[in-house]
Structures are given as structure tokens and as C-alpha cells.
Design a protein that fits this description.
Elements lengths: L14 H7 L9 E8 L6 E2 L7 E3 L1 H14 L3 E7 L16 H13 L4 E6 L21 H18 L3 E4 L6 H11 L6 E8 L6 H6 L19 H13 L3 E5 L5 H10 L4 E4 L2 H12 L5 H14 L4 E3 L3 H9 L1
Parallel strand pairs: 1-3, 1-4, 1-10, 4-5, 5-6, 6-7, 7-8, 8-9, 9-10
Antiparallel strand pairs: 2-3
Bound molecules: ligand PBG.
């Protein structure tokens, strides 16, 4: 009798067999490209801590979005970097504000090919850098912030945004925004609830990307990285409030939360591979310590395997190109 009797390696003997039995797929349509557009510049400005990622001008934004569409990615998520900021983030709901102007421009350019999405949060627009408005004692005022979010949601919907990314982590934000949009007839605008968004150290490069003014941290509204159940609870609340999709963010340090959320809700679950995750792989690759392309694709596959139906990633266009080769 030969030994061993059970040989799992049989399924790994050739690339043809491995291809046939691979459990998880990764396709361009499952990738969403986050993009930054900055007010008042005529040429793109590179972001030092995110090599290959730029703050776009309106023109370079349009060109990059067309490239993403041609590569077959599923959508783009827009972040605005305004020239002027104030305490309540007035630029966020100004129809002439950079994010809203850029949204309309992209809808015109690629709106039929891509799901054009907008970040809905005040932090890029406030002079204190918090995701909401502040009470007299300096704390973030949840319910006053909800009113600002509804105004921002209406401005984004009027600009044509297909999907609003609710990333502020205020209680009741999904319900308040859904109600506000429905009352104005925007019943088809999709809502992505950033349900399980953690107060992460890996947001570092993003703060440069949006010229963040933040002093201190976001720990009174973003989740504590030690909490799994609380992330799950947030996802269930967002689904009950009417979110069309929920997000887990960051991705790679929260793959367990991602799996649990995927198993618990009945709507699509997305994950955001954030700036620090991007920067880590770029830095190691630049030093020749890891194989860049293989590491990027493995990271995206692992996020899909953990349960993400789609992934926001700064590599979306490039990875889509590789996947189509
Ligand atoms: C906040 C926001 C953050 C990111 C997107 N929107 C994080 C933060 O500063 O708390 C991070 C994205 C990234 O790091 O790639 N509205």
C-alpha cells in the first residue's frame, strides 16, 4: 500500500488544474479607483507618500477617468481638495465647489461607462479637519453634522453623482441622508455606508493627499481597531437604515471583520484598501524587497477572498490592465 493515501497536491500539479480549481476570482469590474481633485490647479500634483497617485486638475482627472473606464474598472470614487476651508465645510454643498463641479464633469465624460461616486464627509472641507461640525466644547456634534451631510448629499445628487460614499461615521447618517434624498426625488441615488471604518494608523498618506488640517484624532467617531463585534453591529445598523452597500475600511488589517460582515448582511460588501496599505507595498517594491505586481494582485485577491464584492484601490486602473493581459 502506498502512502500517503490522500494527496491534496494533485490539485496543484499544473497551472491548468490550478486555474480550474481556483476559488476566488479577481476582475476589473470589481475594482473602484479613488481619485483626488484639487481646486485651482491646472496640472496634476504628485502625492509624495503615494508614488503614482496625484491630486488632479479637472483636466487630468477627466483623462485618468477615461483611462480607468478603458481598463474596465467598475467605478471611480471622487475626493475634493478645496482651496478654502471653514468651520462648517461650506465648500462641500456649494454647487460651485470643486467636488461637485468635478462630479458633473465626470458624469459627462464617463458617466455611462463607470459608476461615478463621491465621498460624503466634511473633513476635506473643514478648517479643523474633523469629519463633522464642532460644538462649543470642541467635540464633534453628531446631529448638527447630519444636517450638513444632508445638504452635501443633495448637492452631490444634483451634480449627478450615482453613489454617495458616507465615510463620516456619524450615528444615523444613512437614515438621515436617505430621507433627505427621497424627499427631493433622488430615490435612485445609491448609498454606500462606511459601516466598519476604523481609527487606523494607515490613513497617514491620505492626510497628505487631501492636505488635511486635522489636529488630534478621530477616535470619538471611528471604530477602535480592537473591536470586531462593534464593526459588525455598525454594518447591521447601516443595512437596517437602508444602505445599498456597506464598507469595511481599512482592508488588510480588518480581513476578519470583512468576512463576518459578508456573512451577516444581504447587500454588497466593499472594502477600501487605503493609502497606507498602498504606500507600504510601493515602498517595499521600490526597495526591491517584494515583487510589486505579484504583491498587489495577492493583496487584492486576499481582500476578495475575505468577502469583499468590490475593492477600492489606488491600483485599480493598473491592476485591471494586468488582469486583462
Ligand atoms: C475621511 C476619509 C479618510 C479616508 C478617506 N476618507 C480617512 C481619515 O482621514 O480618517 C482614507 C482613505 C485612505 O487612507 O486611502 N473622510
Amino acid at each position: 500500500m502506498s502512502f500517503p493515501e490522500i494527496r491534496p497536491r494533485r490539485l496543484r500539479q499544473s497551472s491548468a488544474v490550478r486555474n480550474l480549481v481556483r476559488e476566488t476570482s479577481l476582475e476589473p469590474r470589481q475594482l473602484v479607483l479613488p481619485m483626488f481633485v484639487r481646486e485651482g490647479i491646472s496640472e496634476a500634483v504628485q502625492i509624495t507618500s503615494m508614488p503614482g497617485v496625484a491630486q488632479h486638475s479637472l483636466d487630468s482627472l477627466r483623462r485618468a477617468a477615461v483611462e480607468a473606464a478603458e481598463a474596465g474598472v467598475g467605478g471611480v470614487m471622487l475626493f475634493g481638495v478645496p482651496a478654502v476651508r471653514d468651520a462648517i465645510g461650506s465648500g462641500a454643498d456649494d454647487p460651485h465647489g470643486i467636488l461637485n463641479v468635478a462630479t458633473t464633469a465626470l458624469i459627462k465624460e464617463v458617466g455611462d461607462a463607470l459608476v461615478v461616486q463621491t465621498d460624503l464627509c466634511l473633513d476635506e472641507f473643514t478648517d479643523h479637519g474633523h469629519c463633522g461640525v464642532l460644538a462649543d466644547d470642541g467635540s464633534v456634534d453628531n446631529d448638527a453634522t447630519l444636517e450638513r451631510y444632508v445638504a452635501m448629499a443633495l448637492a452631490q445628487a444634483r451634480a449627478g453623482s450615482h453613489l454617495l460614499g458616507l465615510s463620516g461615521m456619524m450615528d444615523g447618517q444613512v437614515a438621515a441622508i436617505r430621507r433627505g434624498l427621497d424627499a427631493e426625488g433622488f430615490t435612485d441615488t445609491l448609498l454606500l455606508g462606511y459601516a466598519a471604518k476604523y481609527a487606523s494608523a494607515f490613513y497617514g498618506p491620505f492626510r497628505e493627499a487631501v492636505d488635511s488640517q486635522l489636529q488630534g484624532d478621530r477616535r470619538t467617531y471611528q471604530l477602535d481597531p480592537g473591536n470586531r463585534r462593534e464593526g459588525l453591529r455598525e454594518a447591521l445598523i447601516d443595512e437596517a437604515e437602508g444602505a445599498d452597500i456597506v464598507m469595511v475600511k481599512p482592508a488588510m488589517s480588518f480581513l476578519d471583520v470583512l468576512r463576518e460582515v459578508r456573512d451577516a448582511v444581504h447587500i454588497p460588501v466593499w472594502a477600501y484598501q487605503i493609502s497606507g496599505e498602498y504606500a507600504m507595498i510601493e515602498a517595499a517594491s521600490a526597495n526591491g524587497w517584494i515583487d510589486r505586481r505579484a504583491a498587489v494582485l495577492e493583496s487584492l485577491l486576499s481582500i476578495r477572498r475575505a468577502g469583499a464584492d468590490a475593492v477600492l484601490t489606488y491600483w485599480a486602473t493598473e491592476a485591471a490592465g494586468w488582469l486583462r493581459d
